[in-house]
């Protein structure tokens, strides 16, 4: 009985799309979109350590916490887009 349940659980695993250039472009654009949105949407910037990179010509300082937050959001957004497009058959 338990082997039948295990087989049922293993046999219904969905297949994922293998990595290719179009998936990479989707992830890159999702992260760029998240960085742009995060740059303008995050209210209190510069609370943590700063990045050793030149900043944009504004009074906002885009530091390490902002970078990690926007990169995390971008990867979540990109994974959702990729999984949605894969399951609908577009990718």
UniProtKB/TrEMBL annotation:
Its main location: membrane. It is found in: Cellular thylakoid membrane; Membrane. Belongs to the PsaG/PsaK family. It is a multi-pass membrane protein. This is Photosystem I reaction center subunit PsaK. GO terms for biological process: photosynthesis. Keywords: Membrane, Photosynthesis, Photosystem I, Thylakoid, Transmembrane, Transmembrane helix. HAMAP family: PSI_PsaK. Pfam families: PSI_PSAK. The gene is psaK. The keyword Thylakoid applies. Gene3D superfamilies: Photosystem I PsaK, reaction centre (1.20.860.20). GO terms for cellular component: photosystem I; plasma membrane-derived thylakoid membrane. Signal peptide: none annotated. InterPro entries: PSI_centre_PsaK_sf, PSI_PsaG/PsaK, PSI_PsaK, PSI_PsaK_bact. The lineage of its organism: Bacteria, Bacillati, Cyanobacteriota, Cyanophyceae, Oscillatoriophycideae. The chain crosses the membrane at residues 20-42, 63-85.
């Amino acid at each position: 009985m338990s082997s039948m349940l295990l087989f049922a659980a293993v046999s219904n695993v969905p297949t994922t799309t293998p990595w290719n250039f179009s998936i990479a472009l989707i992830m890159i654009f999702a992260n760029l979109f998240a960085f742009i949105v995060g740059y303008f949407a995050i209210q209190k910037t510069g609370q943590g350590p700063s990045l050793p990179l030149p900043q944009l010509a504004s009074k906002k300082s885009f530091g390490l916490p902002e970078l990690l937050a926007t990169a995390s959001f971008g990867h979540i957004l990109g994974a959702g887009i990729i999984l949605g497009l894969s399951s609908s058959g577009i990718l």
